[in-house]
Design goal:
With 482 residues, the chain is α/β, with parallel strands linked by helices. It folds into three domains: 142 residues, Rossmann fold (3-Layer(aba) Sandwich), CATH 3.40.50.620; 101 residues, Serine Threonine Protein Phosphatase 5, Tetratricopeptide repeat (Alpha Horseshoe), CATH 1.25.40; 139 residues, DNA Cyclobutane Dipyrimidine Photolyase, subunit A, domain 3 (Orthogonal Bundle), CATH 1.10.579. 45% of the residues lie in helices and 7% in strands. It has 21 helices and six strands. Helix 4 links the parallel strand 5 and strand 6. The longest helix is centred in the last third of the chain and has 23 residues. It is globular.
Length: 482
């Protein structure tokens, strides 16, 4: 279920190496695609080559996202230096400069393995590469505990997805990626890459990955700078995970929705860029809980808690990282145009359409919203957290979107603004889970609510005043006062 052949070309007889084209799962641990590439290399007694490339023309390419990815590339280069695995990091220096690199490296490969992912530009990129390559291209899914292609339908509620999850998890948890696959690399010599590759598409150096000189020369958006103090890569993601398990998990159920508490995991950027595996996160939580799969006896009734056999804190967190995160991947894999207006439930489109002409006061332009120039200090603080820190507190992201709906000329324009701001600034933007969170604001995975209100219709309503009554927000507002 996790491996699919993306084209009709067969393996190349006499190939010099196995090529792993690392794209969405940018890690050397807990990685089904790397496991598969190593399996093929060992079976054929061939060396392994890992190509990790970074384009400069992906949507929303900026210094913020480039820096995060390059941090991980620097880590990989150091980890594989001196090993018999050939690691080839390439950062495209100008638009189109990397065109032809994959084909040139695949020309001597017996098989090409890459990461399967249902979101962002990855499906189009894999399909285009599959059509160009004259050798087998296998795409391998490492997205979550549940293979994205396993459920045959797009689930419309978390409850229905949870029921399927409860039926399939006992079997799925028996199969996991290897925590340290390169502890036993192929027992071969190091691969020799074509001279043309090294000459035409020079690998980026450790100094270039570490410093800012290369980053400053690239044709990317530098108005979105790296987030101070936030580092990409698996090691950094593991530090965040360790801190969360130690200090955030024990109070997650009670405090994760409180903006002034630091009880959320903060793991989404490392999950989004593939630097951290959901399997590793799951393993860390189960170790902290002293849990084994023997404790799992799901009732398959869709209930949110009480079936894992863990603490309420752990079960609340797992509902986020397993149910809700993987529900977003399910939508990306199974729902055409999952990130477009027409993918909203019919009832949501109808109620929003019926109220599209309702008077709105005030109405803010994209520019005013982007600059956090509204009358609402809590919303402004959330927007500034997004712009400066690359994230919004989980609960406030919902409020943030509801207010954009209230302040935009039409619901469709509100959706466009939410996607624009989230994808431009959020380290976890452009992700199926991030998209599903935005579409939840407009009714996906929800139900009609009453009473019917102006602008919102039957869409669930939220307000800054109600949020301030539920949770302390004063220190959060002061922290991001601008």
């Amino acid at each position: 279920m996790r491996i699919r052949t993306a084209n009709d070309a067969g393996p190349r007889r006499g190939g010099a190496y196995v090529l792993y084209w690392m794209t969405a799962t940018r890690r050397l641990v807990w990685n089904f695609a790397l496991d598969r590439a190593l399996e093929i290399a060992r079976e054929g007694s061939q060396p392994l080559v890992i190509l990790e490339a970074l384009r400069c023309d992906y949507p929303w390419a900026s210094a913020r996202f480039h820096r995060f990815v390059m941090d991980g590339m620097e880590e990989h280069r150091a980890a594989l230096s001196g090993s018999n695995v050939t690691y080839y990091p390439y950062v495209e220096p100008s638009l189109g400069a990397g065109r032809g690199l994959l084909e040139a490296m695949a020309a001597r490969a017996s098989v090409v393995v890459t990461d399967d992912h249902p979101g962002f530009f990855y499906p189009r990129m894999i399909a285009a590469a599959a059509a160009r390559l004259d050798v087998t291209l296998e795409a391998v899914d490492s997205c979550g505990l549940v293979p994205v292609r396993q459920p045959g339908v797009a689930f419309v509620t978390a409850h229905s997805f949870r029921r399927r999850l409860q039926r399939s998890l006992p079997e799925l948890l028996a199969v996991r990626p290897r925590p340290r696959p390169l502890s036993r690399p192929p027992d071969t010599g190091k691969a020799r890459l074509p001279a043309e590759v090294r000459r035409r598409w020079a690998a980026v150096t450790a100094a270039e990955l570490r410093g800012d000189a290369l980053l400053d020369r690239l044709p990317i958006d530098r108005s979105v700078p790296p987030v101070p103090g936030v580092t990409g890569g698996t090691a950094a993601g593991r530090r965040v995970l360790k801190r969360f398990v130690r200090s955030g998990l024990p109070r997650y159920a009670d405090e994760s929705n409180r903006p002034e508490s630091e009880a959320t995991s903060g793991l989404s950027p490392w999950l989004h860029f593939g630097h951290l595996s959901p399997h590793e996160v799951f393993a860390a939580v189960t170790r902290a809980e002293g849990w084994t799969p023997v404790s799992l006896s799901p009732p398959a009734d869709g209930r949110r808690r009480g079936w894992w056999g863990m603490s309420s804190d752990a079960e609340s967190f797992l509902d986020q990282i397993v149910t809700w995160r993987e529900l977003g991947h399910n939508a990306a894999a199974r729902m055409p145009d999952y990130d477009r207006w027409k993918s909203l439930p019919k009832w949501a489109r109808e109620t929003l359409g019926a109220h599209a002409g309702d008077p709105r006061e005030p109405v803010y332009s994209l520019e005013r919203l982007e600059e956090a120039e509204t009358h609402d200090p809590l919303w402004n603080a959330a927007q500034r957290q997004l712009v400066t820190g690359g994230r919004i507190h989980n609960y406030l992201r919902m409020l943030w979107g509801k207010k954009i709906l209230e302040w935009s000329p039409t619901p469709r324009e509100a959706l466009a603004v939410m996607l624009h701001l989230n994808d431009k600034y959020a380290l976890d933007g452009r992700d199926p889970n991030s998209v599903s969170g935005i579409f939840w604001i407009l009714g996906r995975y929800d139900r009609p609510w009453g009473p019917e209100r102006p602008i919102f219709g039957k869409i669930r309503y939220m307000s800054s005043e109600n949020t301030a009554r539920k949770f302390p927000v004063k220190r959060f507002i002061e922290r991001y006062a601008g």
